[in-house]
Design goal:
- By secondary structure, this protein is an alpha/beta fold.
- It folds into two domains: 136 residues, no CATH class; 164 residues, P-loop containing nucleotide triphosphate hydrolases (Rossmann fold, 3-Layer(aba) Sandwich).
- The protein is built from 14 helices and nine strands.
- Helix 5 packs across helix 6.
- One of its GO terms (biological process) is cell division.
Amino acid sequence: MNAEQTLVALSDRSPQVAPDELIAGLVPPPQFQDVSFAGYRTDDAEPSQAQARNRLEEFTASAPTQGFLSKLFKKGRSGPRGVYLDGGYGVGKTHLLAAAWHANDKPATFGTFVEYTNLVGALGFARARDDLSQMKLVCVDEFELDDPGDTVLMSRLMRELTDAGVKIIATSNTLPGALGEGRFAAQDFLREIQALADQFDVYRIEGKDYRHRGLSEPADPIPAGQLEAAAERLEGTVARDDFATLLKHLSTVHPSRYGRMVDGVDAAVWEDVSTIDNESVALRFVALVDRLYDRNVKIINSGQALDEVFTEESLAGGYRKKYMRSLSRLTALSSQ
């Protein structure tokens, strides 16, 4: 190990987050600490990008209407109670969401969908709702419904927050009316899904994946015999793990804590990467990649190429968009 390197293992980290810390921790991740609307680079060939940015600037500048009068006159209010950004991966939705958080009056929260569902699990629905009702803005990134229980939970939470006058902005790569499609019997929950859709003014952002910057696949894996030397050249805090061991460890940590698990890490070294053939394991890995991307953690690996980490069946299934977003982010992190 070189003198400018601290070696750790993610598989040794099992962070615990006290319930009282959860609300305080709902802020943009390090990569988005200084973003702004002005810093969002729009593509002139895709006018939907500038339109979405302008709509969010307008929405964050508007004042929320909270309290008793909000509930009394909510049926007569004009305009949407939330904005929903739909679009493919790599079009800058998270940048815009974080920019909205920075621009809006505080208090405000910023978190992923799974962090909000974990918040309700940790605090109970009533306390989570009451705490979030004090916010002027609630930002929900990566909005997705992976099971029917979450459908009912989030539908009710969003409805009660907007009834309290809280502004909500959500991002996803699935239109609100199609949430859960291909993953569970969405038609059985159509009423709840439609209730969610009714909360939002939907903006579709078109465009190419900016993360690739001309790249179409992750960097090549490093031969096992050369991984040690490559890892030695990395600086800062380096997390080195056997890939199979890391995947097993992820099952012991709630995905909402993955961000805390990778805090302070500058680079990740994965030994003997292999294809993940279990859906639950693959989805946990997707959540880990999201948190590594939030922190701009460089990745190098031996074994299989990172674009072979998901099976063909997974890439063709109901979670295809999640896996494709993950491959996009793996390309960016491994090609730094």
